[in-house]
Amino acid sequence: MKINTALLALAVGAxxxxxxxxxxxxxxxxxxxxxxxxxPSVGAIVIIYALGVMIGAPVMTLILxxxxxxxxxxxxxxxxxxxxxxxxxxPDLVTLSLSRFVTSLNHGAFFGIGAIVAASxxxxxxxxxxxxxxxxxxxxxxxxxxxxxxxLTQVIGWRQAFYLISVLGFxxxxxxxxxxxxxxxGKSVNVQEELRILRKPQVMLGMLSTVLGASAMFTLYxxxxxxxxxxxxxxxxxxxxxxxxxxxxLTVGNYLGGLFADKSLYGSLFAFFAMLALSMAIFPxxxxxxxxxxxxxxxxxxxxxxxxxxxxxxxxxxATGAQALASSVNIGAFNLGNAIGAMIGASVLANGFSYxxxxxxxxxxxxxxxxxxxxxxxxxxxxxxxxxxxxLSD
Length: 394
Prior knowledge:
This protein has 17 helices and no strands. It is mainly alpha-helical. The longest helix has about 40 residues, at about 355-394. It is globular.
């Protein structure tokens, strides 16, 4: 089977970004102990990163979309490498949060421009699968990269872990230089027109679905390490194993999301959102033993990431004429959900509720996502009917 080197290079970039995005979930207790702050306070680095993605996605995309995608993506990965280097050198939580913000500025635009590149190097019928292939790097990071970084944090410290992530960024730059096609060109940007397209109800509802899906996921994911310590008195080794299980589940979910989105976009989204809600509702019940926690996290992680490829395609299809910007902003929407989920979890804990309530709140958010999808389907059906009537009248 011939390997698509462009997709492979994009997956390498996604892997690097996945490592830096998700590694703090396993680092929180250790950073908190080293900097002498509380775990909810360290959760700020997750929130700051997510907000940086949300801001950086439209700004960096509008700046870079006029350049060749290859050079734009190399520039974005350079920001990644420098940002992680600054994180490793941070003396306190404020500086660490600022360096995480710098790192995050590449994230949304990389995936947004990368998704356009991925979709352009395959036939139209394989676009969701191509985007899923790029995101596969993100999920593989969860299987191998994040557990490895967590283990390194436990053994040699979180600063050294960030140094290694920075090195990974430079390795990614080399892969982009070697593999991305040169023939793809940038495009002139009519900012007002592209922003007008983003304001279309169908696009905004799609992005709101992304926000809610990510919020549901990160309500639990942000605090999964301390949650496991409370539920099953998990050791460092057990936490690493559970993070690996999550990574495998995210990878499986990403693959299934791309596969079923190519067949039935809305049907797959409704099913995956429903199963995501159910998995978080039952996790506090079955997650009180190591085996139960492993099974619960496996199912939760599968359905958490199965929604990602179809949501990306959903927004891109609704935003014809501004797909690069919409794709990037949708990644920003995912990370806005990341921040909201982290804040929901922090609020639950700060008000004296248990970690079980954190998971239940994730269920509520996922159900809201289903409701928004239902509204979007109704609007889509109405628009299709109006267009059909207009065609008949002509």
